[in-house]
Design brief:
The complex is a heterodimer.
Chain A lengths: L2 H10 L11 H15 L3 H34 L6 H7 L3 H4 L7 H54 L2 H6 L2 H11 L3 H29 L1 H8 L2 H38 L1 H6 L3 H53 L17 H42 L20 E12 L2 E12 L3 E5 L6 H8 L7 E6 L2 E2 L5 H6 L1 E4 L10 H5 L8 H10 L3 H5 L18 H14 L4 E5 L7 H14 L4 E6 L10 E6 L2 E6 L1 H7 L2 H10 L8 H7 L1
Parallel strand pairs in A: 3-8, 3-9, 6-7, 7-8
Antiparallel strand pairs in A: 1-2, 1-4, 4-5, 9-10
Helix pairs in contact in A: 3-6, 6-8, 8-11, 8-14, 9-10, 9-14, 11-13, 11-14, 13-14, 18-20, 22-23, 23-24
Chain B lengths: L13 H15 L4 H20 L1 H12 L13 H8 L6 H19 L12 E2 L8 H9 L3 E2 L3 H31 L11 H11 L2 H31 L3 H48 L1 H7 L2 H53 L5 H22 L1 H4 L1 H15 L18 E10 L5 E11 L3 E5 L6 H7 L8 E6 L2 E2 L5 H6 L1 E4 L10 H6 L7 H10 L3 H6 L17 H14 L4 E5 L7 H14 L4 E5 L3 H4 L4 E6 L2 E6 L1 H5 L5 H9 L5
Parallel strand pairs in B: 5-10, 5-11, 8-9, 9-10
Antiparallel strand pairs in B: 1-2, 3-4, 3-6, 6-7, 11-12
Helix pairs in contact in B: 1-15, 2-7, 2-9, 3-5, 3-13, 5-7, 6-8, 7-15, 8-10, 8-15, 9-10, 9-13, 9-15, 10-12, 10-13, 10-15, 12-13, 19-21
Classes of the chains: A alpha/beta, B alpha/beta.
């Protein structure tokens, strides 16, 4: 993806907009994408469905049996059907013979119904609970996979993305938006199918009673669909806005806390508080709009279905009161309305319309689910800038020479960061890269690590273009100690072991020694086990810097990059560190980025960078002799006496 | 740091502690009591129609279908119902039916209920889907809207409730955020940012959860239960089994709550903690993502998050499992009670005392009663999860903050001297950073603080704006102890440039204006010029309006540092402190900065912490700090003249060897 495309993709992030117009299309798209997420757990899904179906299927016939036995037989007094009697374990000769049951027989039937019902309940309930627990586990697994996928994608995206994005937004998408995947199956598949299924069943039964009422029930659909369509887009827009404002709020909090020192220093707490409250209100307002709309939807749905039920029941009541025959198509059994039939009818009608209502209500909730998932996929769809080419090979083991050939790079189209960089660095040497701030030193190293690809030119290791190497193989072959010493809230030992988690304690200690860090670590309250605070804040900068170096040393890579490694160290410590690193690094290729000349006088090759170009290169002696930029800088810095040469004079020579 | 600032994992408050937390929560929402009262009124009002609901069905059953004339049914109707039916005496079933239908439709429109069947009744709520982790369930809590009814009343009730919930939550989390900001700097070392985010967003909704349960449920459930019992008694008074069953359910609710309450609360605390840890892990991983990339440690970071995230899911699942166990524990006795009632009432029908319509009515009432009683009885259980959230929020709120002592005054602008006298400071884990340090900073002077890494220089500098409090010793501004002044007035005149520059995801202008919100363009440019930043800022695509990206990631290290210095200068402080301001700068920029500082020091006291000779040699006074003590101080020349002096040694190490 080109920088321009990347920016465009970023700008579009979270603006959904046009996509909100589609609804079923959007849902279908998301479903398809989620199918790949479902694949790893399909066996569990099948198992779950099997269990669920078994339980449901067992319930239905039993329910009918018990209902009829109770309502029409025990309460009303009719005799049992032969089938019923045998199923309930009662003697058909007594209970199924004759037209009616005696009170004591009815009591017996009642007792039997209760017993069977309870028995089933006591067995089914734990099973149902276990099934539910299993469902929770499955959904969590699904969510977990998605979360890690999102983090992986975020890790692949480059500086360009991260500089423009907010941590809070990424947090929100990874934790909150991704949670919608757990509702996916339920909300987009299960509930609608089940509900529509029950509605169809109810419709059929009602039709068996009286086709006119069934028609009325079916006629509920159009108004419901109309309501759903009316609410569709406003719901989606509302949900998206609610999510965005909440992500914004998350960002607000994270940023304030990350920069709390500066806020305190400048007494800006009040200002930050006001910003927080504004963001909080905004988030609540958006949530209110979304939820009030949703609430209105559910109420409107209810109005329609309840009216349907009331009218349908009334019609049936009228028919029953007149003892009219059932207008059924191919009806069997009873020919006329009776109280028992009426109640059953009412049950089915009510159930059918509730199912319909539930289906549409779920559809409303589904809008939120789809928006959440859409936000997740927006992020997952961002292409990382640096991709591993198919057929990439691992890093060649000997790494004798690194070459930059005509390398050009720009962060943004109009600002070149590096131009025409050409040099060669051999193993067993120390290459120093110096230059004023912003001259491109760190960029050079980012390219070597393939955090970006050059716009023109190429970089090779032993003649192999970096773009042909496997990314992780390349990066495990290079160790870096960065300018910002980013440490984590873990123990000193774990921080050093960061890139090499299985390293032994001895290795850790040895690395710490090379970095001249072992003395201060030993002086810490718990030595190597001391926990560092968030971002390693318990140590001084110089100490953190040395830990960073130790971390890089431990990796034992053949190429080492030290970016301003000793900026915060006093001269004595700096000397120690450099001596030890140089000794340890014999035979390796060490890149040293700095602007302190005192550290590099013994380097094998010094590259002087200025505004993205190498203006001079050579050894310390060679560069001094040529008396140009380097000499000017040396004079500036290393003067044994207060400098006579004015700043302007030095600049003139440059 | 004291023990009170120990890490965020904290203990279970216990049963008594929970009670206290709940009382505290109630007191906290006292400012909203009028609205709560209104909600209660709405709740009671919406329950009234519920009592009428079973009647239409019975009327239809008895008088329309079975054709029993009005007045001739088995049991008399309660007065209001009888009154309504008076007008229909002697009418054809059709008309009775129409009247009932009309009545039902009106009920639907207004109250969202036509009868007591589940298809005829609905309650309104605005609950959306949530996930299977603690954090993802609280969005519904934070915006909770619910009504017992549907229809127009339900709509109004729903909106009212959402607004109320949001108002309380907005207030609560605003206060928590305020308290967090006010925590002393030292506390932030041990707190995780992700955890704090979690508490502000996902623990705070517990307050409305708890308060709703405490205030609304007992009243609603209690009133409802009483109303049902009263109705039953008036109609079927001689069947005490029914309301005895209700009382039994109440007891069952209590009995189940007691043993499980503590367990539930602890599980909830654990689940919240695990979810917060996952948030922290993710936040840290994202904040450091570039370092992670550079170090090739992506899978390591992912592994860490993977474990933390799955841990939070497991924790939540344990909570679900516990809920199931509690349910099963209560199920047995509850089923037994229900069965007794069922059998009893059915028996009455068999004996002919009640009609089947009566059964329907009675059992419906019984179920309503049962539900209300269980709700009421298990109240203690239901507040436990909310209590866990409350515990976490109040914990953070109660941490000692940078409180102003009573009677503090505004600090006058510094005129001549800042003096640190005999300061002693040790960290919470016992590390002694300062052992009796005295230092004077004078207006018009540049003082340099030099010394080996870890000597305590930054710690000493932190005393000046009162980021840290010395355990012994004092800091004076023109003789006035800073503890007698407000922190705001102190910090208003002290600008601190930190070693790691903290820039925000905003434009250059906005970052600068953090120091002085009303600064004019000229002022901004002047400060930037003095810091040597104006040039590169103007070279940016949009100049001063260029957005800097996260943490100012679009600038180089040196540029960020210069910008931070510009920000510090913008404020025109009386005391300017710079911690390693030149570490990322090249020699020529450094020179320019040193000169700018010299200029700046004409009207203020400047303290520079540095390693580099080139930065400190021109300071008016140099103090050499080692192992928490100042062992030498004087000007460069004075100190160099001392044979074997620490400073001299320090300088000589930096001088390049003779060429």
């Amino acid at each position: 993806m080109t920088p321009a495309e990347s920016s465009a993709a970023l700008a579009a992030l979270g603006r959904g907009g046009a996509r909100d117009r589609l609804s079923f299309a959007l849902a279908r798209l998301l479903l398809r994408r989620c199918l790949s997420l479902l694949r790893p757990i399909r066996r569990h899904l099948l198992l779950f469905f099997a269990g669920f179906s078994a339980l449901a299927l067992a319930f239905v016939p039993l329910g009918i049996l018990l209902y009829d036995a109770f309502w029409t037989r025990a309460l009303q007094g009719n005799s049992l059907l032969e089938l019923e009697a045998s199923l309930l374990g009662l003697d058909p000769a007594v209970f199924a013979a004759g037209p009616a049951l005696t009170p004591s027989e009815r009591q017996q039937v009642l007792a039997r119904v209760i017993a069977v019902g309870l028995g089933f309940g006591l067995v089914a309930t734990p099973l149902a609970l276990a099934l539910y627990y299993y469902q929770v586990w499955i959904l969590q697994r699904l969510n977990q996979v998605l979360r890690v996928q999102i983090l992986e994608r975020l890790q692949q995206l480059s500086l360009r993305f991260h500089a423009d994005s907010k941590i809070g937004d990424a947090l929100f998408r990874t934790l909150q938006d991704s949670a919608m995947v757990t509702q996916l199956i339920e909300v987009l598949i299960l509930v609608p199918l089940a509900a529509l299924g029950r509605f169809a069943f109810g419709l059929l039964v009602v039709a068996a009673f009286d086709w006119r009422i069934a028609l009325g029930l079916f006629a509920l659909m159009p108004p419901l669909v109309g309501i759903a369509t009316l609410f569709g887009r406003p719901l989606r827009v509302g949900f998206r806005h609610a999510r965005e404002t909440n992500a914004e709020l998350t960002s607000r909090i994270q940023e304030t806390l990350a920069g709390i020192r500066v806020i305190k220093a400048y007494g800006a707490e009040g200002f930050e508080q006001r910003r927080f409250e504004a963001a909080s209100s905004g988030a609540f307002a958006a949530a209110f709009d979304a939820r009030a709309r949703f609430g209105l939807l559910t109420i409107a749905l209810f109005w329609v279905t309840a009216a349907g039920v009331v009218l349908g029941t009334a019609a049936a009541a009228l028919l029953a009161s007149r003892g009219e025959p059932l207008h059924a198509f191919g009806a069997v059994g009873v020919a006329a309305w009776s109280l028992g039939l009426f109640n059953y009818f009412k049950l089915r009608l009510g159930d059918g319309s509730s199912s319909l209502r539930r289906a549409f209500r779920t559809w409303g909730a589904a809008q939120d689910v789809t928006i959440g998932l859409d936000r997740v996929f927006e992020l997952l769809d961002l292409e990382p800038e640096v991709k591993q080419a198919p057929g990439a090979i691992p890093l060649p083991p000997l790494e004798r020479v690194v070459r930059f050939e005509g390398v050009q790079f720009r962060y943004q189209p109009d600002r070149p960061a590096l131009e025409g960089v050409d040099f060669e660095a051999r193993a067993g040497s120390v290459v120093a890269i110096i230059g004023p701030t912003g001259s491109g030193k760190s960029t050079l190293m980012s390219l070597l690590l393939r955090l970006f690809d050059p716009g023109a030119g190429r970089i090779t290791i032993d003649g192999v273009d970096l773009r042909q190497l496997q990314l992780d193989s390349l990066r495990s072959g290079i160790a870096v100690a960065l300018q910002e010493n980013l440490l984590f809230g873990a123990s000193v030992r774990d921080n050093i072991r960061f890139a090499v988690p299985g390293a032994s304690d001895d290795a850790v200690r040895a690395a710490a020694h090379v970095a001249a860090a072992d003395d201060f670590i030993a002086a810490l309250p718990e030595g190597y086990d001391t926990l560092l605070g968030e971002r390693g804040t318990k140590l001084s900068t110089g100490q953190r810097q040395r830990l960073s170096i130790a971390r890089a040393v431990l990796k034992d890579a053949r190429i080492l990059i030290l970016d301003e490694p000793t900026a915060a160290l006093d001269a004595e410590t700096e000397l120690r560190v450099l001596e030890r690193v140089a000794a340890w690094g014999r035979g390796r290729l060490i890149f040293l980025i700095t602007h302190r000349l005192s550290t590099i006088r013994h380097a094998d090759l010094i590259l002087v960078l200025r505004e993205g170009r190498i203006v001079e290169s050579g050894t310390h002696a060679q560069l001094l002799a040529r008396g140009s930029v380097y000499a000017g800088l040396a004079r500036q810095e290393g003067a044994a006496k207060p400098s006579d040469a004015s700043l302007a004079a030095a600049m003139d020579r440059a | 740091m004291t023990a009170a600032t120990a890490p965020a994992i904290h203990a279970d408050p216990g049963g008594l502690g929970t009670l206290r937390l709940l009382v505290r929560a109630l007191r906290y929402v006292a400012p909203f009591r009028r609205r709560f009262a209104q909600k209660l009124a709405l709740l009671l009002a919406s329950m009234l129609p519920l009592l009428v609901l079973p009647w239409p069905a019975k009327i239809v059953l008895d008088h329309v279908i079975e054709g029993i004339p009005i007045g001739a049914q088995a049991r008399p109707y309660p007065t209001p119902v009888a009154a309504l039916l008076d007008g229909l005496v002697g009418q054809e079933p059709v008309w009775i039916l129409l009247a009932v239908v009309g009545f039902q439709l009106a009920l639907v429109a207004l109250f969202g209920a036509a009868g007591s069947g589940s298809s005829e009744r609905d309650s309104a709520d605005a609950y959306l889907s949530s996930g299977q982790d603690q954090a993802t369930r609280t969005d519904n809590e934070a915006n909770a809207g619910f009504s017992v009814t549907s229809g127009l009343l339900g709509l109004f009730d729903l909106r009212f409730t959402i607004r109320l919930t949001q108002a309380v939550n907005h207030h609560y989390r605003g206060r928590l955020f305020e308290r967090i900001q006010a925590l002393p700097l030292a506390t932030f070392d041990d707190q995780r940012i992700g955890d704090a985010v979690f508490r502000v967003l996902y623990d705070t909704p517990a307050i409305t959860s708890a308060v709703y349960r405490i205030l609304l449920t007992p009243v609603a459930a209690g009133a409802f239960a009483l109303a049902v019992v009263a109705t039953l008694r008036s109609l079927y008074g001689d069947h005490p089994v029914l309301w005895q069953a209700g009382a039994a359910l109440l007891g069952i609710g209590f009995a189940v709550a007691l043993p499980f309450a503590g367990m539930l609360r602890r599980r909830s605390l654990a689940a919240r903690g695990a979810s917060a840890a996952a948030t922290s892990s993710l936040e840290e991983g994202l904040a450091n993502v570039l370092a992670v990339q550079g170090l090739g440690a992506e899978s390591h970071a992912r592994g860490h998050f993977d474990r933390a995230s799955w841990g939070s899911f497991q924790s939540h699942r344990a909570l679900v499992g516990l809920g199931m166990i509690i349910f099963l524990a209560a199920l047995g006795p509850a089923l037994w009670v229900a069965t007794r009632v069922f059998g009893y009432v059915a028996g009455l029908v068999i004996e002919g005392e009640l009609s089947r319509g009566d059964f329907l009515l009675l059992f419906t009432y019984y179920l309503m009663l049962a539900f209300a009683c269980v709700e009421l009885g298990s109240l203690w259980l239901r507040v436990q999860e909310a209590a866990a959230g409350l515990s976490r929020v109040f914990f953070l709120m109660d941490l000692p903050s940078e409180q102003e002592a009573p009677g503090v005054a505004t600090l006058a602008p510094l005129a001549s001297e800042v003096r640190i006298e005999d300061a002693h400071f040790a960290f919470a884990d016992g590390t002694r950073a300062l052992r009796g340090v005295s230092l004077a900073l004078r207006v018009g002077e540049v003082t340099a603080l030099v010394g080996p890494a870890g000597a305590g220089k930054t710690t000493l500098a932190y005393l000046l704006p009162r980021f840290l409090e010395p355990q012994a010793g004092r800091v004076h501004f023109d003789g006035v102890d800073v503890r007698t002044a407000t922190r705001a007035s102190l910090r208003a005149q002290v600008s601190f440039v930190f070693q790691e520059t903290a820039l925000f995801d905003a434009t250059v202008e906005e970052n600068l204006r953090l120091a002085k919100p009303g600064a004019s363009e000229t002022e901004l440019r002047r400060a930037a010029r003095n810091a040597g930043a104006d040039e590169f800022i103007r070279a940016l695509p949009e100049g001063y309006r260029t957005p800097l990206g996260r943490s100012g990631g679009k600038l180089s290290g040196g540029q960020r540092q210069r910008l931070a210095i510009a920000r510090a200068l913008l404020r025109d402080p009386r005391v300017l402190i710079l911690d390693e301001p030149t570490s990322a700068l090249d020699a020529e920029t450094e020179q320019r900065l040193v000169e700018a500082l010299r200029e700046a020091s004409r009207e203020r006291a400047v303290l520079v912490i540095a390693h580099r000779l080139s930065t400190v040699r021109h300071a008016d006074r140099i103090a050499f700090l080692e192992a928490g003590r100042i062992i030498e101080s004087g000007s460069h020349d004075e100190l160099m003249a001392r044979p074997g002096g620490a400073y001299r040694r320090f300088v000589e190490l930096q001088r390049p060897d003779a060429d």
